[in-house]
Amino acid sequence: MKGSKYDLRDVEILDQVVTILYSGYETVSTTSMMAVKYLLDNPRALQQLREEHLAIRETKNPEDPIDWNHYKSMSFTRATSRLATVVNGVLRKTTKEMELNGYVIPKGWRIYVYTREINYDPFLYTEPYTLNPWRWLDNSLESHNYCFIFRGGTRLCPGKELGIVQISTFLHYFITSYRWEEVGRNKIVKFPRVEAPKWPPYKGV
Q1: Pair 196, 186: CB distance under 8 Å
Q2: Are 157 and 149 in contact (CB under 8 A)?
Q3: Is 46 exposed, middle or buried (0-12, 13-18, 19+ CB in 10 A)?
Q4: What is the pLDDT of residues 52-100, one digit of tens each?
Q5: SS3 readout for the chain
Q6: Backbone phi, then psi, for 146, in 5-degree steps?
């Protein structure tokens, strides 16, 4: 990038492009898709979510967009992030030899830490494969050191709030404007990543 204060190599530019496309688009779209799936399978959660968003709609004119205060009042909307973790893990390179659980990992090895399975650990979450938005009404869950939905510490996803805003906005207009039903069964693939090969399996009214 000549003329820029950032002297990036071509491989670094390509890495940034892929990161923006994947992190900025596919994560949000896939999680939104999974929200539709999980909510349809859980009528009680869908009804409570719809009531939350209908209450928000009553506080504004139909043509007015939702604002930050509306978004912050969506306490029940963070429903599918744990089940539909799109980013499976992180790739790291060891800078020195290390020992982990009795195994020696040499310096220079590349390690893929598969953090996604932590979200399905029954020792951490009761009935880990069940959609349970009520558990997330306790905001302290996101601060636990085993919560890797948006990573943590200095590696916390910089687009965390933006991603949640986009998904919440989609759900607001979708569930207050439409009803949908499943047409045929679409098996959800969870390994090595979350996807629905035959999407969309729904029709809306």
Answers
A1: yes
A2: no
A3: buried
A4: 999 999 998 888 999 999 988 888 886 555 666 677 777 889 999 999 8
A5: CCCCCCCCCHHHHHHHHHHHHHHHHHHHHHHHHHHHHHHHCCHHHHHHHHHHHHHHHCCCCCCCCCCHHHHHCCCCCCCCCCCCCCCCCEEEECCCCEEECCEEECCCCEEEECHHHHHHCCCCCCCCCCCCHHHHHCHHHHHCCCCCCCCCHHHCCCCHHHHHHHHHHHHHHHHHHCCEEECCCCCCECCCCCECCCCCCEEEC
A6: -105, 5
Greatest distance between any 2 Cα atoms in the chain: 62
What amino acid is encoded at 46 in this protein? Answer: L
pTM for the predicted model, two decimal places: 0.75
Sequence-distant (6+) residues with CB within 8 A of 50 are 175, 176
182, with CB counted inside 10 A (0-12, 13-18, 19+), is: middle
